[in-house]
Amino acid sequence: MDQLLELDRELFLFLNGLHSPFMDPIMYVLTDGRAWLPLYLLTGYLVYKNYKKESLWIAAGIILSIVITDQITTTFMKPFFARLRPSHEPSLQGLVHHVNNYFGGLYGFASSHAANTFGVTMFLWLVLRQHYRWAALLFIWPAVMSYSRIYLGVHYPGDIIVGTLIGLLTGWLVFRLYVRVKRKQEASK
Fold it and tell me: How close are the terminal C-alpha atoms of the chain, in Å?
């Protein structure tokens, strides 16, 4: 386990070290969910265009994905594991690149940003893939969002990987639930 944590630390320092004055403000904006509003509006439009009334169930699926991933990572994992974010780790002081004095909360394992965004994206991809071949490109959003967390010094790669896995599994499970509810509705008509 110590070797794995050391590898995580070294990979973090490498990735966090790939910064530039040009990219700092971009990464700072990309980590904020509001920066992705055009993507949210586009996916909302595509869902409504293809599913009309059923789009309310899809919106419920998105909300459920976020609630589950956020509860797992923020309410359970972060306090349970109590792993300091790199930005708060005393042994990394002076080694971590920060932008705009952004340090995040005290604990970072596992990444809620990664879990939430990958959960929603997995669910949306499963919903939209039959209508749009390019729907897999939606995964660019959580990938960029997740990398921005390392860039800003608030997550180790391991935090991101575990958050990603939680998100992907949750998105898939919520999609399975959505399909089951949809079938029951159709059968009752």
Answer: 54
Total Cβ atoms within 10 A of residue 144: 17
Whether the ω angle into residue 110 lies within 30 degrees of 0, i.e. cis, is: yes
Instruction: Name which of 78, 50, 40 is nearest 166 in CA terms.
Output: 78
Give pTM, 2 decimals: 0.94
**How many Cβ atoms sit within 10 Å of the Cβ of residue 35?**
15
The tokens for 142 are 């959580």
Length of the chain, please? 189
The fraction of the chain above a pLDDT of 90, given in percent, is 93
Task: State which H helix or E strand residue 68 sits in.
Answer: helix 55-70
| Per-domain residue ranges of the chain | 37-188
DSSP line for 101-137: T----SB-SS-HHHHHHHHHHHHHHHHHTTT-GGGGG
- What one-character DSSP code corresponds to residue 99? S
Residue 129 has pLDDT above 80, yes or no: yes
Whether 167 and 119 have beta carbons less than 8 Å apart is answered as yes
Beta bridge partners of 85: none
- Quick: pLDDT tens for 83-108: 999 999 999 999 999 999 999 999 99
